[in-house]
Amino acid sequence: MKIKSVIWVVDFCILLLFNGIQFSHGDDRKLQSASSEQQPYRTAYHFQPPKNWMNDPNGPMYYKGIYHLFYQYNPYAAVWGNISWAHSISYDLVNWIHLDHALNPEDPSDINGCWSGSTTLLPGEKPVILYTGSDTKNQQVQNLAVPKNLSDPLLMEWVKSSHNPVMAPIDGLDPDNFRDPTTAWQGPDGLWRVLIGNQMNGHGRALLYRSKDFVTWSRSMVPLHSSNKTGMWECPDFYPVAIDGKYGVETSSMDEVTKHVLKASFNNHDYYILGNYTPTTDEFSVDTDFMDSGSDLRYDYGQFYASKSFFDSSKKRRILWSWIQESENATDDIKKGWSGLQSIPRTILLSESGKQLIQWPVEEIEQLRAENVSLQSKELKGGSLLEVSGITASQADIEVSFDLSNINEAEPELMDPSWIDPQILCSQKPASFRGNVGPFGILVLASKDLTERTAIFFHIFRSHDKYVVLMCSDKSRSSLREGPNKVSYGAFIDIDPQIEKISLRSLIDHSIVESFGGEGKACITARVYPMLAIDKQAYLYAFNNGKFDVTIASLNAWSMKKAHIASASRRRKLHLN
Ligand SMILES: *[C@@H]1O[C@H](CO)[C@@H](O)[C@H](O)[C@H]1NC(C)=O
Ligand SMILES: *[C@@H]1O[C@H](CO)[C@@H](O)[C@H](O)[C@H]1NC(C)=O
Ligand SMILES: *[C@@H]1O[C@H](CO)[C@@H](O)[C@H](O)[C@H]1NC(C)=O
Ligand SMILES: *[C@@H]1O[C@H](CO)[C@@H](O)[C@H](O)[C@H]1NC(C)=O
Ligand SMILES: CC(=O)N[C@H]1CO[C@H](CO)[C@@H](O)[C@@H]1O
């Protein structure tokens, strides 16, 4: 008798064992095996799907030992459309496995798209998703979904509620501007609260809904907050931060030693304000409001939008994810077959001053650090350039700090920084500008001949009896190509250079440079598309274009290894006689 042997063949040869499920590098490997000449802009340690369009991060959470990230995804093309919730999991926020989609647009309440939303962990560790659906009439509604099998830590399958939609644009709400539910929090009366982004008469507001059971929701007559000075608020986020600044705080925690952060996405940026929230009355009294003169608090002053935070109970920290859009056009995206990255996840804390947030890449990313170079107390003469060699400059993590002994020579021309747009100042005084104390900093993704380079630098000005620290990310010379957007970004950093070192950390990954100035007080993310400065042809320099000398107090730079980002393999069954 012939025995039919059954063997399992996995699509590709690299296997990871993950809770007994087999995964392969599938599409990723195909893309990577395409030469880097064809894919010079794919990243090595940022989160991205194997192909196609990705935008907002959705519903990040930590559940039974696993980090989950969902995100807005088009399964069919590298442009926005047919939006589904893609789903990936990780043990360490660095290495990821792509699973099947959690939500697809196939029901009346989301047939035109499963748009952004959040997860909430209900008591007994029961996760639920609230998300925006675009319904049969293209109206925005809010929907509920729950895991099919709570014992599955991967939460592979989700079931949409038969009560959907659970919130509809009734009573005069604009059905085109009613979206992006936050993670819910529970008040002292036991009711759940959630915010929905909305606009009224062209202005942004965060609607407040309450529910006992997550299914029946009623809208508070008063929004949690609104503003006359902005348009529509997308992707609101609302969470407590500890005043002692050491740990993250769970979203429902009503500890009184917190402030609350309200974030809203508008004008292509993620703006936030700080204030005091009173859970018994749902009043939110803000310290300084959105667009108030003299205040411009943004998570990031570069390319960074539609972010979302979550509380990581395993390490008691709050983590922020964000969509990092391309700075090329759709034709370029279609050609490369993909569009969009996620930022390196960042921890968020309140600064000691209580006036702003501090962000820093999650510590796990440091496991990718490989060879390093290190410099201490190195003088950078006015007008000098120093090559930093010995690492892979296209895929690197750099930490540098500067001492300024000539600070009193800073140009005295700056008036009140609250009336000056730092972004304009950075384009008026780019890296090539000859100042006094600055510009000094680093040139990344630079070609050997320096015709291509992205400069991240500081420039110190004197303003009355104080010093003002300007941080710039100058893309004006980032590529010889004509197409990509090359605006410069800028921010003022709230530090006193007389007593504090000027520090910078930059994460460089082929087409992205994420920079953290003043130990996370000002962050600037830039997307760049060099033609020459790719892979081994990328160089790193420190520079000082000011007239006065500065000192590199210390510089540590590491090559970064590639993260493992794999797809769940579809196993094929072969029958052999
Ligand atoms: C639920 O998930 C657990 C853990 O993966 C699995 O053992 C169990 O068979 C699943 N139950 C169903 C009904 O699929
Ligand atoms: C909006 O502006 C009007 C005056 O134009 C003011 O009375 C009102 O309080 C403002 N509302 C908010 C929320 O700022
Ligand atoms: C740099 O690498 C050397 C080994 O080559 C190691 O001893 C040293 O600790 C590393 N320095 C840093 C700052 O990681
Ligand atoms: C997109 O940019 C490329 C250069 O990168 C240019 O050749 C093309 O004409 C642009 N397409 C559109 C539609 O703007
Ligand atoms: C494959 C697929 O379903 N594509 C659809 C994506 O959405 C557009 C409309 O936005 C449809 O025309 C496509 O058929």
TrEMBL record:
Signal sequence annotation: 1-26
InterPro entries listed in its UniProt record: ConA-like_dom_sf, Fructan_Metab_Enzymes, Glyco_hydro_32, Glyco_hydro_32_AS, Glyco_hydro_32_C, Glyco_hydro_32_N, Glyco_hydro_beta-prop_sf
CDD domains listed in its UniProt record: GH32_Fruct1-like
Domain Glycosyl hydrolase family 32 N-terminal: from-to ranges: 46-361
Keywords annotated in UniProt: Glycosidase, Hydrolase, Signal
GO molecular function: hydrolase activity, hydrolyzing O-glycosyl compounds
Ranges of residues in domain Glycosyl hydrolase family 32 C-terminal: 364-559
Keyword Cytoplasm in annotation: no
An individual GO BP term: carbohydrate metabolic process
UniProt family annotation: Belongs to the glycosyl hydrolase 32 family.
Protein name: Glycoside hydrolase, family 32
